[in-house]
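Q: Give me a backbone?
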Amino acid sequence: MSGEGPEGILLIDKPAGWTSHDVVAKARRLTRQRRIGHTGTLDPMATGLLVLCLGRATRLVEYLTAHDKRYDGEIVLGVSTDTDDAEGATTARAPVPFVDAASLSLLEARFTGALLQRPPAYSAVKVAGKRAYAVARGGGELELAPRPVTVYSLALEDLGGGRLAIRVHCGPGTYIRSLARDIGAALGCGAHLAALRRTSSGAFDVSDAFSLPEVEQICANGRLPDALLSCDEGLAGMDAALLDTASVARFVTGREVACDAAPSECVRVYDPAGVLAGIGAIVEGSALRPLKVLQFAPGRLMSEPDSAQD
């Protein structure tokens, strides 16, 4: 891809106390790239992997947010909060029951698989057009409807003193705060999430991420291109189609092209040089329909709106 400013994927190890918006704003200043989006919010308390998309890579955010994620955290039993984490006000206290290996195994089984989960009151979920956290901060009462989520694996460990270590592999949209709250409810004592670290998102791992001071040094030394991953790095699980020059020219102007392949909802589309041209769908009749175009059409500016997030 070509364009103004750096483009690609930048992996950040978010520090505690920073909002995801704070990290994006800092990255904009350091990289001098206005168009930056992230692929999944981390609460200020949480640390770990935040995947940033720079430049026209922001057009791929919607595909990268669908990735599965892994977290490590800590739960405090016997204390409930209004935010379901350590940053909220205490709403209830209760004695912590005896927890043994057998009871932890039962909890792991109960909260693994396809679940209906109620998001935290202080969350970005929209209710009647308003963010839930805005309603909650304003003193309003709301009842968020449970939503389907998937927990692929869950491991709990008794740390003593009414604390549990939690390790989760889950699908998109899963709130670990809600998981902590519901585990406390199942034990009859309430609970909240005391610490959280995202360790991976799809194929991306926090071990490959940079701290913000490291990014600052990288940018100061002019080495940002070496730190960026290619825009298609997170799309490896998607089928691919290689087009000839004439077909790419049609594709990037939003027209269907012939493609001799089985129907598929999403495929990576490359030009003859192996450069990602966009995302398409192969429909019945072996036609490749553009869904997201990343390359400029010759002599034209792209009219597709940015998907960069704050």
Summary: The first helix runs from residue 20 to 31. The chain has three domains: 8-66+203-227, 69-201, 237-293.
